[in-house]
Amino acid sequence: MSILIKNGRVVDPANKIDAVNIQAQAATIIDAAGKIVASGIIDIHVHLREPGREDKETVASATAAAAKGGVTTVLAMPNTHPAMDCEDNIKLLQGIIKKSALVNVLICGTLTKERLGQELSDIAALKKVGALAISDDGCSVDSDTLMLEAFKKAKQAGLLTVCHCEDKKLSGKGVMNLGFNSTRLGLRGISNESEYKRVSRDIELAAKCGAPVHIAHVSCRESVDIIAAAKKRGVKVTCETAPHYFALTDEDIVDYDTNMKINPPLRAKQDVAAIKAGLKNMVIDAIASDHAPHTENEKDIEFDRAEFGKIGLESGLAISIMELIEKKILSWQELVNVLAVNPAKILGIDKGTLSVGAQADLIVIDAGKEFILEKKSIVSKSKNSPFIGRRLKGLVEYTIYNGKVIYQG
Amino acid sequence: MKEKVKILDQEGINRAIMRIAHEIIEKNKGSVDLCIVGIRNRGVYIAQRIAASIKQIEGVDVLTGALDITLYRDDLALASGQPLVRKTEIDFDINDKNLVLVDDVLYTGRAIRAALDALIDFGRPRSIQLAVLVDRGHRELPIRADFVGKNIPTSKKESVEVHLKESDGSDEILILEKE
Amino acid sequence: MLWTRKDLLGLEYLTPDELQLILDTAESFKEVSTREIKKVPALRGKTAVNLFYEPSTRTRVSFEVAAKRLSADVINIATETSSVRKGETLIDTGKNIQALKADIIIMRHNCSGAANILARSLDISVVNAGDGWHEHPTQALLDIFTLKEKLGKISGLNVAIVGDIAHSRVARSNIWGLTKLGAQVTLCAPEMLIPPGIEITGAKISNNIDEVLKNADAVNVLRMQFERDEGAAFPEQLDYFKKFGITEERLAKAKKDIVVMHPGPINRGIEMSSGVADGKNSVILEQVTNGIAVRMAVLFLVSQAKEAKG
User: Fold this and answer.
1) Domain extents for chain A?
2) CATH code at C42?
3) ipTM, 2 decimals?
4) Which terminal residue of chain C, N or C, has fewer Cβ atoms less than 10 Å from its own Cβ?
5) Looking at the domain assignment, is residue C9 inside a domain?
6) Residue of A175, A302, A303 to mutate, interface with C, max C Cβ within 10 Å
7) Mean per-residue pLDDT of chain C
8) pTM
9) CA dihedral sign, ordered B49, B52, B56, B60
10) Predicted local distance difference test score (pLDDT) of residue B76
11) Domain assignment of residue C235, given as a range
């Protein structure tokens, strides 16, 4: 089947194209006049929750949400039940994906068995069965020796290590960013230090053995500085941030909105500024949603007891357009770089471009379209979005995955 | 639009209060064991003026107090506005006293009912008598005044306003016609 | 000035006028407790539920007395946090109480923000009787009421708050309330017990108790809870008393009529000496008495606001 998208503004930084396309014949014709046509978003930090917590989300519901958000490839984090720490478990997930995924789902294996930080997973076996990266996301391996060992094994296997950087001895029982706002709300704080010290350590260990390292969900200014310095001296480090780290601050948690309880936490204004600057000067390579679905039972409770995390597959693009394009932080070329081109490079997959002959994963965006995010319109099984009720701008009109229209707005 | 008719001026009010003072003394055979308690707000000022008049006549200081009836009102739950709770100040023992309760306007009688309830919480006076500057009729409870400054027959559409120097800057009683 | 809030969650949320209205109303209510019959029918037929997730005798009893003096019916529910975790959620508990047609929930909870969460989920009134480290509005109101009674005003006063500021809801509520009413607050504690950013409220910070006492019109001494295990660093007990304890010797160098307050219960010999606790500057028992009037005012106002709305 052929689809023709005409009159749209094609943004394809990989091929240095930013122009209006006019083309010939096809079976399906999408008139994209006034719209943006770009590669599908590659979201390298997503919690699908299946297997194990199908009450929160499933591969089917998450990939439907992805399609609605213009995401055509996701990297599934391994903290499922069971965790993706062995061949069998990954095969189990692959079976589910084959049956019910609407978009491309890639799998991240665990660094350590059951993500306990005690004993390494069989990293070579994870690679063999098809994992694209390894991570203990949600936890950081405390032991320096074990972490160094992990980097070595990952390098041998040719796998990328994704690091959740948090020193739990420092973050402790904290539930939000440490500062005036944690003081005024009477909540235990999480310092920047608990993040950046671990960023620093992981980069040092990776550099020691020459393994590539990817820092997940960068939230604070010091982390950005440390990564910038490491890049400068040639360390193979990449990193991502999430839309909430440039759209929200800890000041937004005014009335104990548990959908704003996230780990790492929403930080201060200076951190948001540093994240935006990091995106602009390419220290931060990618934007990923850190889509973390939780049920109402786990969120509609006391702030201290609520789970960490928010959903983000459906709102990430709109938030990025509002905060980065509208506020003139990034150009469309630069935005597509961090949403698609760079994530593909980080994972080493042949995607993120509109090159002739490439798999047709692309989206048509009405960048000026405003809408109010309503709870009932959320496709994800969980509704824990801090943006519910807010006026957002930038709607996906079409999501085309592998040449097929999988979502139409 | 409201049309105002002045019923009493400063002199009229003074005369009415002086007459009430005389009647109180006459009825209680002097001022022994007498005390006067005004209902907030204007009742308190009238009570003080009555006490001053009694002092003029008898040369005796009569005990006076102030009663806030907000917490006893039977329309607390219905009130559309928000009643302000003010201080009750009765710094003497009311047991076995002849107590004169004072209010500006007697209308439905409900405020007096609330005041009686409140007073009973303070003790057991030998008697409670009621003095009002204006009785405008339309009682909803079996209550009557012992001392009345002026009887003013009104319709329910009208309202009576008592202005006193202490609270309103001038002494006058007006009838207002609601359209 | 119209009271429009169905809840009292914290003093941070109130305007100076609203604070003043509570204090004025409390002044009227104070007289009720001096009567032979200490009861008015203002909340007759209303039901107040004391929902306490944390053990507390004095605050619970104070609220119970206040509600009863207003003729409300009072139901006490004390719940162990541990069992709650497995069972009913806070919001479910609240909705059940609402379904019983209660009118006011007075809640003490160990989690900051619990009262905010409950209040936004219910139509009935919620009065915060202390939530985590967040706020304890009625305690601060009674402190301020007592201070005003003693010194005649709040605006322009220098008020010191001494002790574990970081983990104190009493400190936070006092800082908001006093600052809004124009007092200068100075916090005095070891550095580890000063929470980050607190100076943004306008409070000054010092670790020299003698200096602070020299200028203070009043000192509010917080209870030191050394037994609390929050994983936080705590000073050594004797060392704390030596450096920050309020003693007769220290007080001798302060203003002659300095007002000494304590939210209770006192750890004698830890945050203040017995001589100070029982001394002429101490208003600790008056605070307890004033607590009734302040809580009556709060219960009355929140219930009136609801009526005015509905």
Assistant:
1) 40-352
2) 3.40.50.1370
3) 0.94
4) C
5) no
6) A302
7) 92
8) 0.91
9) positive
10) 72
11) 138-287
